[in-house]
Design a protein that fits this description.
The complex is a heterodimer of chains A (about 350) and B (about 425). Chain A is α/β, with parallel strands linked by helices and about 350 residues long. Chain A is about 35% helix and about 15% strand. The two termini of chain A are about 25 Å apart. Chain B has about 425 residues and is an alpha/beta fold. In chain B, helix 8 links the parallel strand 6 and strand 7. Chain B starts with 18 loop residues before the first helix and ends in a 5-residue tail after the last strand. The chains are: A alpha/beta (about 350), B alpha/beta (about 425). At the A-B interface, strand 1, strand 2, helix 4 and helix 6 of A face helix 4, helix 6, strand 9 and helix 10 of B.
Chain lengths: ~350, ~425
């Protein structure tokens, strides 16, 4: 028996979401804060900014679940929580499950008349360790459940930054971390290329209606991604790249600039996949359309102490991998498939 | 966390039944008898308790409960969010969070599946989440074995889980209702795991009286998470970083909740008897032919069946043997059990589990029974027996062999602290 869209909607009993329209510029942002004083993140911490802007975009009728990581440990010291909205810790690998369970609990209670029926945003966040490593399986599973409204936001500072800067599956090639310290014999201890989380989530979960990449150097774009992800319905995923002064080893004043360089170098493409349609965003779009020339990866890497051991060969290798993303991937910067021969097109 | 005690109507066993309750009891309204397995009995209890969120993940033998739940959901008999998770860890995390927003939840697992969820199992009581779970007791393979062993459920014994072993399908159903009542009592707010021996109970059918929804409603109030509910109208921060500043105080609060659980369990059983008319006597352990017994055996779960048969045989031969079946392992009714066991000349504790390197190399239950008896005025010898591992049958001759040893101990003859029974040498 074929299932029509209407029948599917009835089957899923999907609850309405809050309709959060895009902000039309920094000056139009609300003044009210839902992530306030009380946290003890490092100076220049971009992830703290992600928390602040994420929940400002979501508004007061929101529940936030936070898996273990910097944004748990630094933000929720007992008796000095920085969260104005309800917040609950979840286990390191559980952001997907926490979002799903919270959304399912609310849905059941509202559907059965045990709780006032209203759209409540559910956001579960995780770091790159909690998301790209340990929590991958639960996030993936959650993105296949079309019947629950929630957003999983992965703030990626490219290491287990809270536990002492250990490498994660999201740490860039060659970076110096406390688990990959360059030595006398081995200069490069970390040979793995960073996982392509957003691409993986978008390509691997065809019913997931929204996947986006953001960077808080472009805050309005990022907040509007959050608003769209919460409004569109079903489970959604956002991957944020967050420069980290402690883990990346640079002066905290440079956080914003580093985020910009990550984007202009093409290392961190900004895009959204909405209902299967890919849209490149901001400067990434300018690069793709030829309006902006990619800045050298070296300019980005040289500013960070974690790449201080890089030789010219290392920089060249890194640059070649970035070039590959843009010149050889079937969908540049997004999906790392290549054509077998020129003129070979993916099936229509 | 606030520790306000919320008194609810009907929790005091001294309170006489109301007219409405008497009316329901008299009618036996809508009660029916069905031939169902232990697993199905618990699925039926979920329906009766109007559970809101249930998560499933396959592992034998517990997973039959979820197969029944799936049928109840697809037939429209149970209205819940039914989620098939991608691992046991997620399975338990999902319901943990659903419970935090105020949903009544059910979950379960077996053997290494339960162990895969262990991180979630540790935080569930710590967060005062009144989850009810079924453990279909199973060996912790490797080496592979589907059969019953109690080590899976016992692994959480230190963490704040209330643990109960049942030995028949009727008790499984009744206990699931009692578990919700106790776990969700504001004085407790701790999870409860119902242990059902794999195959012997999960897959064995028996005639079960299924109570009416009306009676269940009279017995089980709605889950009210109160000021611990995670909701925009109650913007709390749950499970912050407390470190050495507060961790001990919070652990102590949880310990106090476990202490209160004993009282709440007694109240719940008293109400259960009044409303459903089924009597369980002492909630914590059941005594079988102990009145005039010289020696007793102690055990948990379905090994009660061969033990009872063996006792009837031995009684015909003039041996006065009794049996104490422990139901609640947590909270452990230490003083009461010690006082009871002190009446006998010797005690043999049957463990369907192992605890390698433990004192006297005994199983978990024997070690706990010895610990419970140490301060008692009368301390008969306590022997430990390990048997029935991996689903191996506990046989009548095996029980007789244990009893012989217990008799020798009663006569003052030194016996090994622990013996493995039914072992191929």
């Amino acid at each position: 028996m074929a299932t029509t869209e209407r029948e599917l909607a009835e089957l899923l009993k999907l609850r309405p979401t809050q309709q959060l329209d895009a902000f039309k510029g920094v000056k139009k942002l609300p003044l009210e804060e839902f992530f306030t004083s009380g946290h003890r993140t490092c100076q220049g911490c971009e992830s703290a900014l992600v928390m602040k802007m994420m929940v400002k975009a979501a508004g007061p009728r929101t529940i936030v679940l936070g898996s273990t990581g910097c944004m748990y440990v630094a933000n929720t010291t007992y008796y000095s929580t920085s969260w104005v909205v309800p917040w609950m810790h979840t286990q390191l690998g559980s952001s997907g499950s926490a979002g799903l369970g919270t959304a399912a609990g609310l849905k059941a209670l509202m559907r059965k008349g045990k709780m006032k029926d209203e759209p409540i945003n559910v956001i579960a966040f995780c770091g790159d360790g909690g998301g790209a490593d340990m929590g991958l399986s639960a996030i993936s599973a959650t993105l296949t459940h079309p019947d629950y409204n929630l957003l999983i936001l992965m703030y990626d500072n490219e290491s287990y930054a809270n536990t002492d800067i250990q490498l994660s599956g999201s740490t860039p090639y060659g970076a110096n971390t406390t688990f990959s310290t360059p030595g006398k014999v081995k200069r490069i201890m970390h040979h793995r290329w960073k996982k392509n989380m957003a691409g993986m989530m978008a390509a691997g979960h065809p019913t997931c209606r929204f996947v986006g990449t953001v960077c808080m150097s472009f805050p309005v774009l990022a907040m509007n991604a959050v608003r769209k992800a919460l409004s569109i319905g079903g489970p959604t995923f956002i991957h944020s790249l967050d420069p980290c002064p402690k883990g990346w080893d640079y002066d905290p004043i440079q956080s914003h600039e580093l985020g910009e360089l990550a984007v202009t170098s093409g290392i961190w493409p900004l895009y959204e996949v909405e209902d299967g349609v890919l849209k490149l965003i901001g400067k990434t779009r300018d690069i793709a359309d030829g309006r902006l020339k990619r800045t050298p990866a070296r300019d980005y890497l040289l500013r960070q102490g974690r790449f201080a051991h890089f030789t010219d060969d290392d920089f060249d290798y890194f640059q070649s991998k970035v070039d590959e993303m843009w010149q050889r991937w079937l969908i540049p910067g997004v999906i790392p498939f290549r054509k077998q021969i020129d003129g070979d097109h993916p099936p229509a | 966390m606030p520790e306000a005690v919320v008194a609810r109507k009907g929790q005091d066993p001294a309170v006489p039944p109301t007219a409405a309750e008497k009316n329901i009891a008299a009618k036996g309204a809508g009660e029916q008898t069905s031939l169902i397995t232990g697993s199905e009995a618990i699925a039926v209890a979920c329906k009766l308790a109007d559970v809101d969120v249930i998560t499933a993940y396959p592992i034998r033998p517990y997973d039959t409960v979820m197969q029944y739940v799936a049928k109840l959901v697809s037939n429209g008999e149970l209205d819940c969010e039914y989620i098939v998770a991608e691992s046991e860890h997620s399975q338990f995390e999902i319901v943990k969070h659903a419970s935090a927003v105020g949903a009544r939840v059910f979950c379960g697992s077996s053997g290494v599946g339960w162990m895969y969820a262990f991180e979630a199992l540790t935080v569930t009581p710590a967060l005062r989440i009144p989850m009810v779970a079924m453990v279909g007791n199973r060996a912790l393979d490797d080496p592979g074995a589907f059969g019953v062993e109690h080590n899976d459920a016992l692994a959480v014994r230190d963490l704040g889980w209330q643990l109960i072993w049942v030995d028949n399908a009727q008790e499984a159903l009744d206990t699931a209702l009692i578990a919700y009542r106790v776990a969700e009592d504001r004085r407790v707010f701790l999870p409860c795991a119902i242990s059902c021996d794999g195959a012997f109970l999960t897959h064995s059918q028996a005639l079960v009286k299924i109570p009416s929804a009306e009676k269940v409603k009279a017995f089980l109030p709605p889950y009210d998470r109160g000021d611990l509910q995670l909701h925009p109208d109650n913007p709390i921060t749950v499970a912050p970083q407390v470190n050495e500043d507060w961790l001990m105080e919070i652990r102590r609060q949880n310990a106090a909740a476990m202490d209160r659980s004993s009282t709440v369990i007694r109240e719940a059983y008293a109400d259960f008897e009044r409303i459903f008319g089924r009597h369980y006597g002492n909630p914590f352990f059941e005594e079988y032919q102990t009145d005039d017994a010289d020696v007793v055996l102690v055990g948990m779960g379905t090994l009660s069946n061969p033990v009872r048969v063996a006792i009837r045989q031995m009684r015909q031969e003039g041996k006065k043997v009794g049996f104490v079946r422990l139901r609640w392992f947590r909270p452990f009714a230490a003083e009461e059990l010690a006082a009871t066991l002190g009446r006998f000349r010797a005690v043999g504790v049957i463990d369907r589990d192992f605890s390698l390197g433990s004192p006297y190399r005994s199983g978990v239950l024997a070690t706990e029974v010895r610990a419970a008896m140490y301060p008692a005025a009368k301390r008969p010898p306590v022997l430990g027996f390990i048997c029935g591992l991996g689903g191996r049958e506990v046989t009548v001759p095996g029980v007789r062999k244990m009893t012989e040893s217990v008799y020798l101990a009663a006569e003052g003859k030194t016996q090994p602290g622990t013996q493995w029974i039914g072992l191929r040498e």
